[in-house]
Specification:
It is a single chain. The chain has 254 residues and is an alpha/beta fold. The protein has a single domain, classed as TIM Barrel (Alpha-Beta Barrel). The chain is built from 10 helices and 8 strands. An 8-stranded parallel barrel has the order 1-2-3-4-5-6-7-8, surrounded by 7 helices. Helix 2 links the parallel strand 2 and strand 3. Helix 1 runs parallel beside helix 2, helix 5 packs across helix 7 and helix 7 packs parallel to helix 8. The model has no long low-confidence stretch (mean pLDDT 98). The structure holds phosphoenolpyruvate (PEP). Phosphoenolpyruvate binds next to strand 8.
Amino acid sequence: MKTRRPLIAGNWKMNGLRADGIALAEGVAAKAKAAGAALACDLLVCPPFTLIADVARAVAGGPVAVGGQDCHAKTSGAHTGDVAAAMLGDVGCRYVIVGHSERRTDHGETDAVVNAKAVAANAAGLIAIICIGETEAERDAGRTIEVVAGQFHGSLPDGATAANTVIAYEPVWAIGTGRTPTNAEVAEVHAMIRAEAAKRLGADGARALKVLYGGSMKPSNAKELLAMDDVDGGLIGGASLKVDDFWAIAQSCP
Ligand code: PEP
């Protein structure tokens, strides 16, 4: 039996105007409310910055949490276009994604930058969802374990705990492509992350740490992925934009 309650997190990325986001959030909130105590997972939606306040209002009082998709490492100041972690908390976020591969690629975010963002998130009382994962070239070169372990240690703050941090293993080549690693490949990486986590958080901390899988998770493959011992939920992009798909994934939790 799994001891960690799964987390099913939707990363809406740069999608949706207010009406879309509110309708999506209300749809998920209604399903969650109807499921009540039968809900086998924690639920999270991460809308674009512009929708966070509206989405937080739409899900208020229910089990669906709200998160940001990024935050700045600093608390305030001359950082045009950026958002501080406390600002996310102020509009209702409990979580923030940091180090998503699209941020690492589009904005050149290094492990050190991601680490600093996770520190800022935790300082503001937010749970940091730290994303790590290899590119296809790195996998083809047999470097997956080395690369993901390096990102894990580089991106994880010293103050990380199982209560303030979630890890999301997202192979870059699986994001938005419809391709997924084999079960054996997912199991190998997740087991490695937990083993490395023990070196940083201690055995109990590593046992309690949630490690999500992300990358083309959808209703048709969620049950198999979520059944794996070290997979504690999913970070879902495309399939989180449809209430029925996101809900079907949530219902696939063991
Ligand atoms: C993601 O962006 O975190 C993600 C996993 O996307 P998708 O589910 O679309 O592959």
